[in-house]
Amino acid sequence: MLDGLQEILFSLRQNKLRTVITGFGVFWGIFMLILMLGSGQGMRNGAEQGFGNISTDTISFNGGITKLAYAGTKIGSSIKMTQDDAQVIKNTFSSIRYTATENTTSNVLVTRDKNSGNFQVVGVDKEYFLIKEKLPFLAGRKLNELDHDETRKAAIIGKPVAERLFGSVNNAPGNDIKLNDIYFKVIAVFDDDDNMGMAANRVYIPLTTYKAVFRYDAYVDTLFVRPQPNADGIVLEEKILKLLKERHRVSPDDNRGISSFNRAKNLEGLNKVFFGINVLIWFVGIGTLMAGIVGVSNIMIITVKERTREIGIRKALGATPTSIVTTLIMESILVTTIAGYLGLVIGVGLLELVSFGLEQSGAKMMFFKRPEIDFHLATTAIIILVSVGAVAGFIPASRAARVSPIEAMKQD
Q1: Which SS3 state, helix, strand or coil, does residue 41 take?
Q2: Three-class SS of residue 107?
Q3: 130 neighbors 57 (Cβ within 8 angstroms)
Q4: Handedness of CA 345, 349, 355, 359 (dihedral sign)
Q5: Can you list the positions of beta strands (E) in 165-290?
Q6: Which residues on neighbouring strands pair with residue 124, listed in sequence order?
Q7: For residue range 117-134, what is the model confidence (pLDDT) as tens digits?
Q8: How far is it, in rounded angstroms, from Cα 201 to Cα 162?
Q9: HSE on the CB side for 53, CA within 13 Å?
Q10: C-alpha to C-alpha distance for 412 and 402, rounded to whole angstroms
Q11: Which of 56, 180, 211, 228 has the fewest Cβ atoms nearer than 10 Å?
């Protein structure tokens, strides 16, 4: 084995320029494949951030302005959902896992000593953070049952709010802020890159407290529903829409009076789009890689031709066709594997560098985020490399193994 490796390395050193040029074709193919796959994933991550930190199976419902008259409801009527709607929905459909509501007031003056700013205050109910489960908390805890039941003045603030009022995230938990001159205790700090980072400019408080401080009516701005894991979200969405329209006397054909947004449905469409993009990327990437592999095969043909006399001498001395084929295939595999591995490492390194740069600069790109390569894809690329490297070496190697020693010795 060691002798065979030494022979391969000696052969490669004898033709350094040829080896480098041959390897570069493979290097460039895998490098471009990794870059395209990583960029495709970055585009996917950017598109998925439009769903925010809400679970991707969540369905949201909003009231609006009717465009059709129906059962006594006039055109242009304002439809507002209530907390009772949420309770009725949860009691009616066993396929619902969680329901949550939120109310929002914008441009609320939030102060801490001499620091102040205008931010959005959002009142949320008990199951809200079970639906917005991906929301990253940097410090503190989520709202609990007692915060809601006892109408506590507890606040969860976004990272920009904490930095504006306290100078840093770590200084915020346990301290007081004032919302419209009413004291609230900060219990946590979160980060949220939804809506280009603007969703982090929020203050979350219990819905019971929100209604006592900001709005006394029973209306809710948005109603969220998260189905059970095995439930059909599309069917559930249709049933809930029908029930809500019946309760508020909205025409079944009116999609403005009460509207819905099914994240699972949109995610399914997104998956189809990016499946097509990935197929195109693999097609182009493997085509580029195959061009490099063809170069390897051609070089191996030239190598075999140059070493015909050597192969004839080895066969005359008792070398078997299998040993000759194995040596030449190993040479091909060694070149493709080393060149491909370098392309893989440099490609992944460049993706990590871009991702790090975007994160450190704080850049928020709507359709591009955290380019990365999946480990399984990288492994697949390496397996493809080794396989095609073996094939590239096998064809000329098998031809060389069939040459008789006498014919080989006649070659110049």
Answers
A1: helix
A2: strand
A3: no
A4: positive
A5: 176-179, 182-190, 202-206, 219-220, 222-227, 258-262
A6: 102, 206
A7: 999 999 999 999 999 888
A8: 9
A9: 19
A10: 18
A11: 180
Q: How far apart are CA 274 and CA 10, in angstroms?
A: 46
User: What are the residue boundaries of the structural domains of the chain, listed by start?
Assistant: 2-51+268-410, 99-221
Q: How far apart (Å, rounded) are the C-alpha atoms in residues 338 and 354?
A: 24
SS3 state of residue 333: helix
Average pLDDT, the chain: 81
Query: Taking the CB of residue 364, how many other CB atoms lie within 10 A of it?
Result: 15
Coil, strand or helix: which one is 252?
A: coil
> How many beta carbons lie within 10 A of that of residue 381, not counting itself?
24
Sequence-ordered list of residues with C-beta below 8 angstroms from that of 327, at least 6 positions apart, any chain: 4, 7, 8, 397
pTM of the shown model: 0.67
Is pLDDT above 60 for 362? Answer: yes
Q: What is the pLDDT of residues 95-120, one digit of tens each?
A: 999 999 999 998 899 999 889 999 99
pLDDT score of 283: 81
What is the rounded CA–CA span in Å between residue 337 and residue 27? Answer: 9
Q: Sort strands 115-124 and 96-112 into parallel, antiparallel or unpaired.
A: antiparallel
Are 260 and 237 in contact by the 8 Å Cβ rule? The answer is yes
Q: Cα-flanking dihedrals φ and ψ of residue 105, to 5°? A: -125, 125
- Cα–Cα nearest to 150, from 212, 104, 99, 101: 212
Tell which wins on pLDDT, 184 or 23.
184
The tokens describing 33, both together, are 């494949």
Q: Give 407: exposed, middle or buried? Use CB within 10 Å, 0-12, 13-18, 19+.
A: exposed
Which spans in 115-206 are helix H?
128-131, 145-149, 159-166
Q: How far apart are CA 51 and CA 268, in angstroms?
A: 12
